[in-house]
Design brief:
A hairpin with a 4-residue loop joins strand 2 and strand 3. 40% of the residues lie in helices and 20% in strands. The protein contains 4 helices and 6 strands, in the order ββββαβαβαα.
Amino acid sequence: MTNYPTSPPTVQEKHTPNPPLLADVPARGRIIALDLGTKRIGVAVTDETQTVARPLDRIERRSWKDLLKKVKGIVAELDAAALIIGLPYNTDGTESEMSADARRLARNFSLSLDIGVFLQDERNTSYEAKARLWESGATLEETRARVDSEAAVIILDDFLATLARERPSKN
């Protein structure tokens, strides 16, 4: 699938319109999220029912080939149904330098994987992740080691909230 719309997060409470392509996200199956960084990439995954997101080990970013191999391995191991890429914007809503990289990687993943690839606004997720970790009592060292994947959890939670709003009620 080669669809990668941007959907708004709830943590940041932005008002980006939701594209209709969210209907392409399977109603069941694990979803993986990536929080892209220049050196490290945070990874998170949902359960089969797409209810709960949890962090996975972060990925060290070396090259596209290495990244693709690692992500393909995660997708296969977890039998993932979709991939979410965090799309970094500036706080004022304008595109950041990293936005172009995220869009490029989303396109590359969509051409290389057999699952849907979607973009999710990720403004301030690293700050929110640090705050969550500090509140949970994590040390500075633990926070540094876990912040990337905790940010991916926030990206995934926001994406799931958007899906819940977009999907018809089961009542």
